[in-house]
Automatic annotation (TrEMBL):
The keyword Glycoprotein does not apply. This is Uncharacterized protein. One of its GO terms (molecular function) is metal ion binding. Pfam families: Radical_SAM, UPF0004. Its cofactor is [4Fe-4S] cluster. CDD domains: Radical_SAM. InterPro entries: Elp3/MiaA/NifB-like_rSAM (IPR006638), Methylthiotransferase (IPR005839), Methylthiotransferase_CS (IPR020612), Methylthiotransferase_N (IPR013848), Methylthiotransferase_N_sf (IPR038135), rSAM (IPR007197), rSAM_horseshoe (IPR023404), rSAM_sf (IPR058240). Keywords: 4Fe-4S, Iron, Iron-sulfur, Metal-binding, S-adenosyl-L-methionine, Transferase. Residues 3-104 form the MTTase N-terminal domain. PROSITE patterns: MTTASE_N (PS51449), MTTASE_RADICAL (PS01278), RADICAL_SAM (PS51918). The keyword 4Fe-4S applies. PANTHER family: RADICAL SAM PROTEINS, THREONYLCARBAMOYLADENOSINE TRNA METHYLTHIOTRANSFERASE.
Amino acid sequence: MNKKYTIITFGCRLNQAESRMMGENLIKLSLTQIKDFKKADLIILNTCTVTHKASREIRKEIRKIKRVNPKSFLIVTGCWLYKIRISGEKKDKDFLKLINLSLYKKDQKNLTKLVEKHFFKNKQVKSKRKIYQDKYYQSQKAIIKVQDGCNNFCTYCIVPFLRGRSQSRKIKKILKEIRDKQNQGIKEIILTGVDLADFKDGKNDLTYLIKEILNKTKIKKISFGSINLKILNQDFISLYKNMQNNKLSSHFHIPLQSGCDETLERMGRKYKVKDFIKKIKELNQKIPNFTFSTDLILGFPGETEKEFRKTYKIIKNLKKILKNNFIKIHLFRYSKRKGTRATKMENGKVWKNINDAVKKKRVKQLKKITPNF
């Protein structure tokens, strides 16, 4: 009887891409992919820890898996696991006892060998290759990881400590993966990374990679994960002048995080609000059918009412400029992450703590002016 497996993914598109890559490794073994974790013999849980809420959801999921399917072999990977190794709290470390195999970042490429060793006890025979199907496959889409890690060290963010410094995949390997997806019937790829704009293969940047994909594959559409301002230069924008490049998505998710320069400076963000607005206006004018979405962090340490009002006004201004082209905003209440500069400054009372009631109030106020979101 064939063993069954499933992959449960929390968090960002980079996690989704890594889950797909792990799934494609697992199908080299005679495992049957299913969706229902209750019936799975092997479960991979790909985790997130970007906020306290995310960590809480992971602990809840582990408890649920072991309660409902106690005989399953549970593999845990992703940022929640990586955080435990660096600065994990006892309540997180206690959950390691429920995990059959901890899969750290460096081990993901050896997943099949580890599964054969620890799950199959070196007895499993390899089977015919099948197609791994995640939630994107049904829509003929695939998320392609092109970059990992981050050099920015925004003061609130734990990701650079968990995923390391920025590193990019080779263009040659990316093109091969895209052609493989194309042969599986995939029509749209979504390029993703922790800092997509920091992609670099030698002297070649993200714009060059996009040109290579356009010229050397037959993929129908190229979309982008979250992207920051630094790559959105004239060379990038010029890609949209050639109408054969209507394969390129005109939607951009560009995190603003705050509409106040003082807050952005404490966050370690490397731009001014006026430059952000100027770039959004330019993209709106030069890219056909441009649409925009963004992220905001509310209640960042030291965020005064005056600073919040600046963010409020900027969002109203962006709505006025873009109208229906401003399609979504993700509102996050600031979440303290151990080891970050923001947490140290807050704990040292250099930056004032913003209580949860104020954070909720600010989220509510912004939701009132963005009801269609």
